[in-house]
Amino acid sequence: MTDPWVALEAGADPAERVRALRRAYETFTSAGTVPRPVRPVVAESWRRSARAGVGPDGAASVELTGGDLGTYRAEHPLAQVMPLIRELLGTFAADGEHLLAVCDAHGRLLWVEGHPTTRRRADGMNFVPGARWSETAVGTNAPGTAVAVDRPVQVFAAEHFIRRVQPWTCAAAPVHDPRTGRVLGAVDITGGDGLAHPHSLGFVQAVARAAEAQLALLTPTRRAGDMPMVRALGRDEAELVLDGRRIRLSRRHSEILVLLSLHPEGLTGDELLCALYADDSVTPVTLRAELARLRRLLGPGLLVSRPYRLSVAIESDVTVVERRLEAGALTAATEVYAGPLLPGSQAPAVVRLRNRLTSGLRSALIAHRDPDLLTDWAHTPWGEDDTEVWRALAQVRPTAPVRARLDVLEAELTAAPDDRARTRACGATYSQRPPV
Question: Where is the OmpR/PhoB-type domain (predicted)?
């Protein structure tokens, strides 16, 4: 197959492929192995789905209804481009007895439109606005997998993880924020086997690119008065979006910019030295040299001294997460949290901030007890060994894979002290791992 993201190569017999996929699916659900002709993208998705505890007979849950759904949709960035998406895909969906669907970055369906008969059939599997169709909720499916892997993808028939979805075929492509590159959601076309064609995948990808282009026109890269943005979560080297430029910062410059963005009143040289260096032998000359290099990188006038401070307000993804947590918007906070703050940094102030933010978010997740949010956290590099999160997940989603993973973690906790010491010596924590 020339394109692994396309479900059927030219000349393939759909009926024969369905039979082969069903045999492969039964082998996977019974033995855990993935035989041919399952595509690698689907095999990897099946494994992720199984690790998330999704069962073959599961179903999507509806999370938003009524006024809550209406408010969320109205405020979502993709609402601005829905008229364009309808114009490009709506007639195709209605004429072909397909469905047009748009989801958010968590796989939650926001709009489902198209042929009335097809919509009624889709209602039977909760393919409806407000339902969560992420991989962690319902397994392999085009919109959920597209946002999970950030790639356009087709899912054909028995490639779907849940059995009740296997009569369907779908193609979806992610839509990105043109300013930040962040995934906003995905546009999807769902229907019968006829969609298992390269043209449908190319079509939905073109619609997604058109939506991004219109978003760029509606929200220019930077207008007068727009706030610069620094992103430092889940990355060792922060990225600053400034005047339409994306500036990648060194680790030390990342630490300085994050700390100054959180202290608009400024920091003295001694305060910065204590915040950045655990070694008392580091001299002010070293710090001044770093600040001079950062000033040249940022351009004139942005970084000033006495005390060291930024001349304009700079937003950070750290403050966005903190604001949303304080407001009780837990789902919105997890949307922004891309991982621990500058995970390779050992700067004392950054370590304290990183621990505070991570601890606050995970504590809120455990207290909230939302099974999907807990599942998402537990299957991240920073959550895969978090015993408390897995305990909370086992209480609200006690599937066999979840219990098995918790048993492993509990066994590690009760291991002999020598074993635990050996484990610590052989494997660094996520925050200590060097950048890949």
Answer: 244-310
Q: What is the DSSP letter of 178?
A: T
C-alpha atoms less than 13 angstroms from C-alpha of 241 in its C-beta half-sphere: 19
3-class DSSP state of 168? coil
**pLDDT, mean over the chain:** 87
Q: Are 185 and 212 in contact (CB under 8 A)?
A: no
Predicted TM-score (pTM) of the model is 0.59
Ranges of each domain in the chain: 14-218, 221-368, 369-436
Q: What are the DSSP calls for 141-155, one per residue? A: -HHHHHHHHTS-EEE
Class of domain 14-218: alpha beta
pLDDT for residue 160 is more than 80: yes
Q: Rounded to whole angstroms, how far apart are CA atoms 109 and 112? A: 7
**10-24, 222-236, 287-301, 336-350: which has the highest mean pLDDT?**
336-350
Which three-class secondary structure string do you get for 196-255? CCHHHHHHHHHHHHHHHHHHHHHCCCCCCCCCCEEECECCCCCEEEECCEEEECCHHHHH
pLDDT in tens, 399-416: 998 999 999 999 988 875
Q: Is 273 helix (H, G, I), strand (E, B) or coil?
A: helix
